[in-house]
Amino acid sequence: MTGRHSPARRRTLIRTGIATAAALAVAGGAIPFLLQGAQADPTPLTIPVPDRFAPLKNTVHDAGASGFLTREEQEGDAYNTGFGPMSGYRWIPQSGEPQAVGSDPADSGVRVDGSASDVVALYTKASRTVELKDLKAGTSTTFTLPDGHIYLGATGGAVLTATSKDTGDIEALHVLRKPDGGELTDTTVTGAVPASAWAVGADGHTIALRTPVTGGQQITLVDLEAGRAALAFPAAWASAQLQVVLSDKYVGWYDSENGDDKVHLLRRDTLDGAETTVAVAGSSEYPANVAVLGDYVLATTGYSPQQPSDEYQLRRGGELRALPIGGGDAKTLLPHAALSMAAAPDGGVLVTGGADAGHWAVRKATVDADGLIGLSTLRELPARAGQLRELALSAGVLATTEWDTNSYPSVFKRTLDLGDSPSAGDRSVLQEPAATDNASDVRRYAGTLPVGTGDGRFAYKDTYAYSTSKTHLEVRSSAQDSLSLPLPTTDAGGLPTTYGSKVLSASGRYVVFGQGTGPNDHQYVADMAAAGGPKIISERVGGGSAVWGTRLWTVGDTDGTIKAVDLKSKETADTIDIGCTPTRLQAVGRWVAWDCASGSGLYDRTTKQKAGLPAAGELGDGYLLSLDKDAGKVRLTDFHTGTVGDTRDLADLPGATGKITADRFGGGVAWLDTATGVVHAQSTGLPTSPLARIEAHPDTSVNLKSTTDARWDGSWQLSKPAASGAQVVIKDRAGRTVRTLNATTRGAALTAAWDGKVSDTRYATDGTYTWTLTAAPKDGQGAALQLIGSITLTGGARGHHDLNGGAGDLMTLSSSGYLTTHYGDGKGAFGSKASGSGWPAGTYAVPFGDLTGDRCNDLLVRMPDGILRRYTGKCAGGGYSPSGSYKALGTGWQQYNVLTAPGDITGDGRTDLIARQASTGDIYLYADNGSGGFKSRVKIRSAWTTYTHITGVGDLNGDGFGDLLARHSDGTLFRYDGTGAGQFKDRVIVFTSWGKTYNAMVGVGDITGDGKGDLVVRDTSGNLYRNDGKGNGSFTSRTQIATGWQVYKGLF
Fold first, then answer.
1. Angle 909-911-912 (CA atoms, 0-180°, nearest 5)?
2. pTM for the model
3. What sections of the protein cross the membrane (predicted)?
4. Are residues 788 and 914 in the same domain?
5. In terms of domains, do 418 and 523 share one?
């Protein structure tokens, strides 16, 4: 649907005329630099009016061979119902222009009759005249009823009347005819003339009469051509609201009030025959309308059974169904149909219906010789424009409160792009009443004024009329993204609460709401992201309030002042003397605006200067949007440079009910013409402030084994929307990137989440990480924003050689059989320790990675008999004893004189095992099989007999794969880098002439706390040294960290 109103844009400039504005100066001289590059001449966007939910109201009264008689809804709002007034009767011919039948609007003193005929009768009660209009022939004839005749009805050019006895009963029925130019004829009806009668149905040659009798209604058929009455139903248990349906084959009655929800049918050729019934889905609350089409009953029900019945918006009706008279499955012909149908002379039935208001039409149902039903469109009915009541623009998202575009008043939203080629995205529901809501509450969003929070959500008070407990403060962007704070309308003692119904301001997690801004009005601040759920964090009384980021601006402690309080620290951050008590405060970035009884003003937090404003309005970033209702103008005042400048007209907005909104989190404005429902929006064309963080809530720690929150989340409320492509880069302590996250845009906010994994299958190791958020401004104005923070991660994988969490560890075996774990202190040495006794001589320990998937590093021990055992790792630390729980992984392992864990060299994220065969020096890979053991060995090197020491060291060079160190007998230390494909690259020299006195060498992982793997060696005198890893595959010179370690038979 196209827009119905496009006011011409004006470029007129208006001087503010306020001396204080012209006098605004920057302390110290120059005004701060502000971004350039804004649009010079913004292109306006016109947003079409949504269709009204309820289709165009239409009733079909008669269907002839050449057209049909109808009444249709007109423009306007009749009696504040949301529907326009109905037109008078109009004849819609198959070709040609519609023709008025009678007066327009319809005269309540004139009755219009016609059924299955091109002839319509107009009976004027006051004058007792009948006009017969042949709408096909274009002729008419008028006559006055004979004395004593009472008008009952008319069809097919014949008029049925009655004369009465002195008792009041019917003496006789008469059929009157008056051909064009001919004389009036009177035929007395013979047969079963009833005692009293009201017409309740007709076709082109028959009128059905009802007569109240004991137990219901008697139904009589009067054949106007034969002039004979016949009794059809002696006593239908029906009320005066019964419907009588006629076709060439059937006559039937139906009553949703007192009937049995069935259509009762007789064949017209055997009125004394057996009755057939057809059940329809109607009731007294949801009535049905019925007709007969061939051997089917057509039925449509009224209002949806899930909704209160008195709501006009729902009157697009239920399904139009065809119910076989002889039994069988019903067929749905239309999803919705109005409660009026008219039989046509050829046996077809006219009905109004369709899928929705945009696909509504008068249609004709027919049945062919094979019994197949078809529908054809006779007249398309245009949708009516909906009514919009309120609007709010926030971070490029437009919310509109709409009276009648949904089944009940609802709030909708859509995303706007106000760049060089403005556009509006798809419209979706922000909030609507539930189908089961009480009838008194389904209209509660009719006057809702949503207030944008800047993060894609809107805040509003959800007030229930007759519930003291259901009312709440709602912040939502959709049904799946909503937060609620209960605000009961009465307290525990039954007294009214002071929560009020107005949302005054909102920014991110904070919402200011209350009774208003009067001197005695209570105001509250809600933190919708508080720990444990939304809660009220402050209360005050009187004056304006506004929130931006974490700062709450309120009336100050001294008369004529305002102040800013930090909502997190509770400290007063600023106090400004404005010389009056504000009834409204607004805050956007560097700007604070106020409205007082004496006028409006502005404070620039950057320049520390104040200025007057020409009018009250909506504050934006560097401008004020105002509505002059007397002049019918939308106006923009520019002060982005720090000086209040000219005011210019943006648009005409006639009438006193227009609405305006300024996007506090962007450079857009919008206005609503409530008379037409058209919304206009555009960029201001002014430079915007740089992209900035105004509030943030990134987690500082995460436990990946938490049962309630095993994910790191970050959220950042920004001053305006960021461009797509914003990223969060996670780095470890060594500065290596372990994960790059794509941030999700939510209005002018960004969110990101990290599951703690560094690949699809591998968790990050415990420790400290940094995150860096980089985001560019969506409007292209200003530099990219970069924010940095840190994360302490626990519950992840353990680092190389880390057996208890925190740092690398070292194991020793004493001659007395104690296997001891020396825990790294993170400062380059070893502190506490844990031991287990009873280990026999020849025990060979291999601190390993996580074989069992519990994110704790396990311990491999080769026993002297060659059995390899796996001891489940102890995440919290503790000693290991031979009798502890273990699983044997095989025998024959005594053939190896080196067993070591280099880390992951196969690229699957799991630690692998390297073994050197004593007899040949060949090197074998035992890859983790993912089931707690190893795959079959693979030979990867031959004859490594010249190496005196071989040790796995984890990832030394930062490529993500495990590495190996090997000391040659000539004193050269080599590094073999893992390939990620189960092999090592060619060796690289690390040191030469190195380690002549060393008898032990262990890659202990990171024991210094810098995230880089370190090396520990012992010399023949028992001195223990540390070589710090550089992160590039090499080490620093050695540092002595302990003495006396010659007592240990083995270091692992």
1. 120
2. 0.83
3. none
4. no
5. yes
Q: Using alpha carbons only, what angle is made at residue 1000 by residues 995 and 1001, rounded to the nearest 5 degrees?
A: 75
Q: What is the dihedral of CA 986, 988, 994, 1000, to 10 degrees?
A: -50
Half-sphere exposure of 924 (CA within 13 A, CB side): 19
Q: Is residue 761 located within the same domain as residue 842? A: no
Residue appearing with tokens 């047969």: 191
Is residue 674 in some structural domain?
yes
Same domain, 437 and 535: yes
Cβ neighbours for 292, distance < 8 A, ≥ 6 positions apart: 245, 246, 247, 249, 250, 252, 265, 298, 325, 343, 349
* Tens of pLDDT, residues 352-382: 999 999 999 999 999 999 999 999 999 999 9
Sort strands 228-236 and 190-191 into parallel, antiparallel or unpaired: parallel
Q: Among 773, 794, 815, which residue terminates a domain?
A: 794
**Mean pLDDT, range 430-453, rounded to an integer:** 87
Residue 956 covered by a domain = yes
Q: What is the CATH number of the domain that holds 145?
A: 2.40.128
Q: 3-state DSSP: the chain helix, strand, coil percent, rounded to 5?
A: 0, 50, 50
Instruction: Report the pLDDT averaged over residues 222-234.
Output: 97
For residue 440, the model assigns a pLDDT of 75
Which residue among 763, 794, 825 closes a domain? 794
Q: Between residues 7 and 109, which one has the greater pLDDT?
A: 109
Give Cβ neighbours of residue 810 (< 8 Å, ≥ 6 apart).
801, 821, 822, 824, 830, 1002, 1004, 1016, 1051, 1052
- pLDDT tens per residue, range 159-209: 999 999 999 999 999 999 998 888 999 999 999 999 999 999 999 999 999
For residues 37-64, one letter each, b for 16 or more C-beta atoms within 10 angstroms of the residue's C-beta and e for the rest, the string is ebbeebebbbbebbbbbbbbbbbbbbbb
Query: Do both 677 and 699 map to the same domain?
Result: no
Q: What's the CATH number where 829 sits?
A: 2.115.10.10
Query: What is the residue range of 232's domain?
Result: 109-237
Q: Interior CA angle at 165 toward 160 and 168, to 5°?
A: 85
- Flag whether 348 is in a domain: no
Q: Tell me if 132 is assigned to some domain.
A: yes
Indicate the pairing of strand 785-794 with strand 701-703: parallel
DSSP 8-state assignment for residue 205: S
Banded pLDDT at 79 (limits 50, 70, 90): confident
Examine the pLDDT at 1031 and tell me if it is beyond 50: yes
What is the rounded CA–CA span in Å between residue 570 and residue 592?
A: 19
- Express each pLDDT in 591-638 by its tens digit: 999 999 999 999 999 999 999 999 999 999 999 999 999 999 999 999
Query: Going along 487-617, which residue ranges are E strands?
Result: 502-507, 510-514, 522-527, 535-541, 545-548, 551-555, 561-566, 572-577, 584-588, 591-596, 599-604, 609-613
